[in-house]
Amino acid sequence: MINVFRRFLQKFFKNMFSKKKRIKFGLYGPPNGGKTTLANRICMDWLGEEMGSVSNIAHETREIQIKEEVTIKNKKGNELRFNLVDTPGIATKIDYEEFLKVGMKEHQAKDRAKEATKGVIDAIKWLDDMDTVIVVLDATKDPYSQVNITIIGNLEARKIPVLVIANKIDLKKADIKKIQAAFPQYHVIGISAKFGKHIDEFYEALFKLTG
Amino acid sequence: MDSLTLQFVPYAEIEGLSSVKRIQKLLKIVKHNKIILLEGRLRSHEEAELIRRTMEEIDEKFKGIELSVVNPESVDTDFFRKLRVLFVNMLLGNRSGFTIIGPATIIKEIKQDPGKIQLFMQDLQKKVRSRRKR
Fold first, then answer.
1. Would residue A160 count as lying in a domain?
2. CATH number where A107 lies
3. Which residue has the higher pLDDT, B32 or B119?
4. Is residue A186 part of a domain?
5. Rounded CA gap, B96 and A52, in Å?
6. Mean pLDDT for the stretch of residues A102-107
7. N or C: which end of chain B has fewer CB within 10 A?
8. Residue B55: per-residue pLDDT
9. What is the pLDDT of residues A18-57, one digit of tens each?
10. Which residues pair with B109 in a beta bridge?
């Protein structure tokens, strides 16, 4: 009888802790905004290893990538532990001929386009699983694109906390004010994920976002 | 001579349809190489679903869509006017503004800011010539 009770208690506590959910931080945005560069920056800063490959050619990330148990610390010594989810860039069109222009062979270009479409589908499906989302936008590009508005509108409808990142501020054409004007209801932080500029401000914002 | 077809879709035409049927209807028109001028806008989850369905349909001929929502109410900062729009939308559906959806093979880019919208068209002759070369 005592053994039965002990086994029940062991099972109860094991289940309780194994089902404990880790916060999922999703990186979302259009292609080539710098999501994977930011994911790599976070992973290098706190885990000492990169997460995925980056490229100037759009749709380099075509599959969802997850880095589990990333722990960051702030100046006060508080810890924030989460699973980082890097998603493929969301686009409304994918033309394999665009990949031919950058020197790919026809079959490579077609394969990449097909994988990219699947990537977009997966990124949209994963929206429901996110606890917090970091929308990564290229600060040199026009922020008033419908993809950006649709992503943020969907996060708003799902009541998922959002942090907007204006990336690539190391470039001359970068315009953070334009992104702030486009999304005035959100906290916008200008960073350079590539060079780590204002990255501490970004980490601090993650703490604030999760309360 | 090439021609461009703009099809106006009044909100009443999609009002009674489910989200799936709405998206099917809109994609069907776009796949016939027409540019849709939709009265009002889709719900945010329908916009995401439209992108998802578009991705499923992409092949060598259909390259995707260009999409833009023009909503003059979104730039209005007057609280009571916003509240009124919210109330009207709840009762009658999201009829304010309009949505442009076109095939990516025809529309190269839609640029928008709160004050204006610009449609940049693909150079179809150039595309045909480059395909012939290959």
1. yes
2. 3.40.50.300
3. B32
4. yes
5. 42
6. 89
7. N
8. 96
9. 444 689 999 999 999 999 999 999 999 999 988 877 777 7
10. B120
Q: Please indicate if any CB of chain A lies within 8 Å of the CB of B55.
A: yes
Mean pLDDT of chain B: 83
Given a contact cutoff of 8 angstroms between Cβ atoms, the answer to whether A24 and A83 are in contact is yes
pLDDT tens-digit readout, B72-92: 665 555 666 666 666 666 666
What interface predicted TM-score (ipTM) does this complex get? 0.84
Classify residue A68: in a domain, yes or no.
Answer: yes
Best of B44, B65, B133 to substitute, by most chain A Cβ atoms within 10 angstroms, is: B44
Nearest to A135, CA basis, from A63, A44, A51, A27:
A27
User: Are A153 and A186 a contacting pair, CB within 8 Å?
Assistant: no
CA–CA distance, A21 with A32 (Å, rounded to integer): 30
Q: So what's the pLDDT on residue A19?
A: 46
Residue B106 predicted with pLDDT over 60 = yes
C-alpha torsion sign, points A96, A165, A51, A64: negative
Return the closest-CA partner of residue B55 out of A89, A18, A23, A21. Answer: A89
Cβ contacts of A143 on chain B, cutoff 8 Å: none
Residue of B nearest to A91 (CA): B51
Q: Taking Cα atoms as reference points, which of A96, A100, A149, A125 lies closest to residue B58?
A: A96
Measured distance CA(A66)–CA(B82) in Å, rounded: 40
Q: How many domains does chain A have?
A: 1
In this predicted model, what pLDDT tens digit does every residue of A108-137 receive, in sequence order? 999 999 999 999 999 999 999 999 999 999
Q: What whole-number distance in Å separates Cα of residue A207 and Cα of residue A186? A: 15
* Angle (nearest 5°) at CA A64 between A61 and A68: 120
8-state DSSP, B97: S
Give me the domain span that covers residue A172: 22-209
Interatomic CA distance for residues A188 and A181, integer angstroms: 10
In a domain, A17, yes or no: no
| Contact B119/A at CB under 8 A | no
Domains of chain B, residue spans: 5-133
